[in-house]
Amino acid sequence: MKPNPVYQMEKMTSSRSVKMAGIIFGMNLLLTAAALMMLYGMIREIQYTGEIPYQSLIRLYETIAGFEFGLVMFIVPALTAGAVSGERERRTLDLLLSTRMSCRDIIVGKLAASFRTILIVTLSGAPVLSLVFIYGGIRELDFIMLFLYYIMTGLFSGSLGLMMSSLFQKTSAATAVTYTTLMILNAGTSAVVYLIYQLSYMQAVNSADYTVIPSAGRWVYLLLLNPAVTFYCFLTGQTGSGREFGFLLARYGTEAAPLMNRWWTEIGAAIQILCTVAFIAVAARKINPLKGQILDRK
Amino acid sequence: MLDIRGLTKRYKKFVALDHFDLHVDRGELFGFVGPNGAGKTTTMKIVAGLLRPDGGSVTVEGHNILKERAYVRECIGYMPDYAGVYDNMKVFEYMEFYAAAYQIQGLQARERYQQLLEMVGLSGKINDYVEDLSRGMKQRLSLARALIHDPRLLILDEPASGLDPQSRYHLKEVLKYLSREGKTIVISSHILSELSEMCTDIGIIDKGKMILRGSLIDIMDQVNQNNPLEITVYDGMEEAARILREHPKVQTVSFNYHKIVVNFSGSHEEEARLLNKLVMNGVLVYEFIRRPGSLENLFMQITEGKEEVMIQRFHQAEEGE
Fold this sequence. Notes:
Chain A has 13 helices and no strands. By secondary structure, chain A is an all-alpha fold. Chain A has one domain (5-287). Chain B has two domains: 2-213, Rossmann fold, CATH 3.40.50; 228-290, 2-Layer Sandwich (Alpha-Beta Plaits). Chain B is elongated, with a radius of gyration of 24 Å.
């Protein structure tokens, strides 16, 4: 199989750029600072109480994993939101499109380059996350699954950025819309479900016979689109009793159907993978000069 | 080689191409000229498969560009009026990247780009970063890029824009060489003189329509035909006046001392016969000349709205032949 020329070119140029080094350094700096601060707090606690709180080590893992998830979710789009619009700004997109490469080849090359970045960034954070092995409590398989989850998340947010980049002429517009979409997915869906629960709660309070039980009902399934909620479900499945996710849904006065509750992570992950495929297909279609039309062209 | 029929393209209310027709034969170096906004770039982008037309058809070697894109991409080399470069990329890497985009790799790619860089005079810059090259060098690199897959049809959109005279000269020489090598070249410019020095054929486009198309020699002949004959007579003015008034191809005659200005619609041969007749009848002719017409003036006349007159004259002359 011949290597994708766009991927090869991106690999070469990004390795010469300080941007990549800056991202790795910045991310690991934040990750290490967070981990060391937590570890320091734990040691101080041990010094005072003389007890080793193993639960705190799990919290350390959860915190670092959650922190890294957030970084992957929000750093990768910064790289991909300019992938196609940057080509437009440099005026190289037409040159690429006039070659033998198909639109799909170009998009896949761009995504493969960001995939490489995801791998480097997440793997570079592995030593920090490995602090949890000092005392144990997490299996190697959990560790591998976590990295696979990061890759899936990176591909999801990366392909979203890539799609927006193909839809908008300017990188600034593509970046802004990508982050807005991520905010809507991660915070907006929770807010909607919470709002519906609150409305239901108000109805229950105002009802005469007090028989109405406040609940967000089936709206809770909107959270399947929320990558942060699905990650929470995945992570608590690794570290907790497995009931934590049910408690989260109970906050909205409801619970998912048992089957949904059992397979929430898998269903949420499948939705993200389907979205990733759809984003790539839209991006490839949008850069096709004979089919696509960009949105912010004057 | 390239056949465009009834091509139309609109940008909202603006009509960029209005039932535009063009035929370019194999081996032609066709100059595509028109003022800014005339529709040159739109036409070229459509031919290169970078823009969807609203109507009409474009075929390259008989293959429809919309239906057989892969084939058409193989035989077209497209060069826009900008270089389009990546940061942190060396000249040879830039060429290798585009070679790979056409699935040319390894030794074959290396030999090909070395040959092309030699041709455009950039072999000494092979290890330089592309962003450090001058505009002229970037344009030459862009030409080399467009040739990496050895296309049979080259589409060059204002390749000389913004270049200094030396770079223009170099580019012109390279294009002449490519034409001699058998490449079909379509080159656009809004500067007519730039094209008239190298093209075998030219077409003038304005407001999305082709308003004049022909070989440069024919067009120049027609331009010259519109200019009067200037005859300076040393002796025999009366005899000269008689001969000229009787000649069926003489439309108007005016006299100014020894100089006669004649609007003459005959061919080169008839011009020569007229001169011979004057001399044989004892008129001492000191000077007999048709001042060469300016292609720039023709272009200005056409694009300023006098096109109908000019085209009519052009067609009349063609029919006369």
